[in-house]
Amino acid sequence: MAFFRSSSFFLSVLTSLLLWVSFPGGGEIWPILLVALIPLLYSLFGVNTRSAIFCGLSCGLVHFTLLLYWIVTVLSKYGGLHWFLAVPALLLLALYMSLYFALFALLARFILLVFPAAVSVWLLPALWVGVDWLRAVLFTGFPWMDLGYGLFEVPVLVQIADLVGHYGVTFLVVLVNTCLMLILRLIVTRKTSVVTYAFVLVPVLCLLGGAGAYSTNRFAEEQQTSAAPDTPRITVGIVQGNVDQSVKWSPAQQQDTVENYLRQTQALFVSSHPSLVVWPETALPFYPPSSEYMQLLRDMVAGNSFALLTGAPWYEIIDRKEKKVNFFNSALLLQPDGQYGGKYYKTHLVPFGEYVPLKKFLPFLAPLVEAVGDFRVGRIEHPLTWQQARAGVLICFESVFPDLSRQWVLAGANMLVNLTNDAWYGKSSAPHHSLAMAVLRAVETRRSLVRSANTGISAFVSPAGTILRQSELFVPWAATSEVTLSQELTIWARYGYLFAPFCLLAGLLGGLIAAAKRRWA
């Protein structure tokens, strides 16, 4: 096809490569993010509708293949699929994700052709954010690494997330790209005046200046609050067990796994005395209600007078006669008195990893989850409480979804805890992505976030999004830190979460109006 020999195709692919170079786990050169979209956006001038769709598809397919390559490791090494099935599965997922890029490119072309630059510069970022949000909610959602997450290592740039969430950060990133592209286009075409440049640049610079001033001041305020002597705190310990995923669920390894965590936890008390210790998702590779190893845990917490928050599989017997049992991916709070101070059952399960969607209609897919159990969905009710801490728990994949942390805050959580097992991803970019997304959850809610990962990356994150301490990948690690406890209810938690749906409405409306005008012109 002629399109694949055109400059538009190469410009679209160039955007994909620039995004990879700018993202964590890739090139990690975050400033490139501010210009990475220019080739794709510029390619939409001078192409027809069909080619615009192909621009989006080409960019999306390359981008998501590079972004999600670790899916092959998950499916082949741990899912039991041969590589010649795992690779097509990755490509199908990337193709699905690229459909959202295609939708953006299609409507963005109409917007660029119909509206003046002073209008397009706002509609394109709104459309991009709206399409991102659509990808996060359709078919249970898969909002993996939106553009705003690429700035997670520069916390002073992401403080507006407490107003409009990480989507607001993405909006500003796309706004800068769009503005630069339009200025470049105006220079190349030489069909404009100083007034046109002013209409494009001045409002954009005002918004960026305001956002920059807010972020700088807010970042300084959060640092002062965290350092203030009257700020409530609790000393928390993290244990990263680094248990090999290939043997983790072996019955013969259960005792070694428990002793590994006990040994590392006891070591924490040599230099510090945490009030709360956090172990990762499914750190206990057995069902606590029926395991003899639970007594070892009870003895440890009683002897050191701390509470243990750990991940574990759990079951509830519904009907003994008919052998009906519900299984859950859970978080448990074990108190020094040996009682459970609370349990949380994972709310957002991983499709085809923890359950089979439409299982009645797809029974042949059931074996995919036999190794981990067909889990039931829990719900967010009350934070897990110990002393002053009221922990909202995000298990693994749940840290990707901002609304879950928002629900925890509305339920009264004054800190967030992310229990995860990223061993599935291997030594890939995925653990870096997971950490990046978790950091924005802290900023959006203004809650400290404690992240305990089986093989890393474990971390303590401040309410300002600063990573205070973090582990390396695939090493045993244990550390403690004082964690600040916050009661603040951010604007994002109250109203700002509606920013992305509003962007979808504005972007789609603008795109459809432009398409109608173009058709009837």
List keywords for this structure.
six-stranded mixed β-sheet, Nitrilase/N-carbamoyl-D-aminoacid amidohydrolase, 47% helix, alpha/beta, 521 residues, 2 domains
What can you see in these coordinates?
- This protein has 521 residues and is α/β, with parallel strands linked by helices.
- It has two domains: 2-226 and 497-520; 232-484, Carbon-nitrogen hydrolase (Nitrilase/N-carbamoyl-D-aminoacid amidohydrolase, 4-Layer Sandwich).
- 47% of the residues lie in helices and 15% in strands.
- It has helices at 7-22, 38-43, 49-67, 71-78, 83-114, 117-137, 161-189, 194-227, 254-271, 294-304, 402-410, 430-445, 491-494, 499-520, and strands at 233-240, 276-278, 307-319, 324-334, 340-345, 384-386, 389-395, 415-420, 449-453, 459-461, 467-470, 477-484.
- The strands form two sheets. Strands 5-4-3-2-1-12 form a six-stranded mixed β-sheet.
- Strand 6 (384-386) and strand 7 form a beta hairpin.
- Helix 3 (49-67) crosses helix 5 (83-114).
- The longest helix has 34 residues, at 194-227.
- It is globular.
- The model has no long low-confidence stretch (mean pLDDT 91).
